[in-house]
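In this supplementary section we document a worked example of the pipeline. Step one takes a protein sequence of length 149 as its only input; no multiple sequence alignment statistics are reported here. Step two produces a three-dimensional model, which step three serialises into C-alpha cells for compact storage. The input and output of this example are shown verbatim.
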Amino acid sequence: MKPYEHIFTALQTSMFGTREQLDVALEEGSKINAIKILRSDFGQKRFSLREIKNVVDRYVRLMDYMVRVKWLHTQLEEKEKLFSDDIGIKNSRVRLYKLIKRHENNLKWFPTHIDMKHMNWLVEKHNLHIYKFKKTYTYPYKHSQRRND
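The serialised model returned by step three reads:
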C-alpha cells in the first residue's frame, strides 16, 4: 500500500482529529507544522520524511482543487437562478455535486483529467473566467494566496 493511501484512509476516519489539526496548520500557512502533525500521529520510523511531505503536498493540491469545484458549483447555481430553463446548467451542477460527494466520501480519490477538462469547458462556456477566481474567492490556505499574487 502506498503511504498516501494509508494516511488518507486514516485521515478519512479521523478518529484522533488529525484532519482538523492538519487543516488548521495549513490555514496558518505552515506545511512544516502539518508534516510534524502527521509524523507524530503515524510514527517517526514508519514513513520517511519525504513520503509524509508528498502526502501533505497531495492533500494541499486536492483541497485547492475541491475549493475550485465548490466555487464553480456556486457560480453555476447563480447562473441557474437566472436561466432556470437551461437543462445543461442543471446537469453540470449535478456532475459537480457528484465530484464533491466523491471527494467527501473518499480522500484517496483524485480528479481525472476528464473532470478537469469538463470544469475548464464549463468555465469557458458560461463565461465564468471574467469573475477572476483568484481575486473573488478566498483560498483555504495562506500559502495558496502567496502563490497566486
